[in-house]
Amino acid sequence: MKVDLRMRNSSFKKTTKYYHLNFDFQTHPLFRQLDWIYVQKKFQNVISSFPVQVHSLIMMDTHIHILISSEEKNENFFCERFKSEMKSPGKNECFCEPITDYSQFLNTYKYLYRNSVEAGLSQTVEDYPYSSLRIILGRSVGYVQIDDPIGLIQNPIQTLNWLNSDCDFKISQLSFLRQDNSLSM
User: Fold this and answer.
1) pLDDT value at position 11?
2) Is the pLDDT of residue 164 over 90?
3) CA angle 50, 51, 54 (to 5 degrees)
4) Which of 60, 90, 107, 154 has an alpha carbon within 20 to 30 A of 182's alpha carbon?
């Protein structure tokens, strides 16, 4: 499968820090749509105070996945601010995984959007209503600014086919995505 993505191995900026954040958050079964709006607005409040770019945001039933990048190493302050902004009951733990290379970025990007499919909450990645993917595709109103370095909107069919494919997330499986190009993130 050949996929033409905007972000290339050569454009993965080594000076930029990338992070996958996993934040505990319990949704209410009757008010998930309101929870989704709440999460986006609170998140937008936080990112307005930090020099970060949001690449994906997904709300599951018990947690939130966030993929961000920043020129500064401020992920711990960012997590603490987000936790205090959310004020949700429970542990409110925030796990932060640094992303160190292009393959790991692609693995994480795909993992986050496939999370709802793997959990049986949707048939396809684009059908899950609590995902920034729907905002990028124009299928949902967004309350948070999303920067998509993959270039989904430029080539939606191929990118969605890749996201919906049930291939292994190993680096060897990503060789078809490694095409050098001068386009940057």
Assistant:
1) 52
2) yes
3) 95
4) 107
